[in-house]
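During the reporting period the student researcher (J.K.) took over the structure-prediction task from the postdoctoral fellow and processed the backlog of single-chain submissions. One of the processed entries is reproduced below for the supervisory committee.
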Amino acid sequence: MFKNAPHPNAAWLFHRWAASDEGQKAFGIEGRIPANPKVEPAEPIGITTVYGLGEKEYREFGKYEKIWKQIFSLR
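J.K. obtained the following structure tokens:
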């Protein structure tokens, strides 16, 4: 949420809805992958393993961010 949002309460309401089971189901119906593992996407996905970032990767984030920006010519 932006610091000086014109309607911060509306943003919080949207955030609460989007994180709810109902919101996650709506995202799944629209073809997105729901963040909530209890909610199935509308179409099956081919992902069988999810690789999370550990402490080491977070500590080295700057190094990987630099490589990413070089690859995609970002500032």
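The committee noted the following: Residues 8-19 form the longest helix (12 residues).
J.K. will present the remaining backlog at the next meeting.
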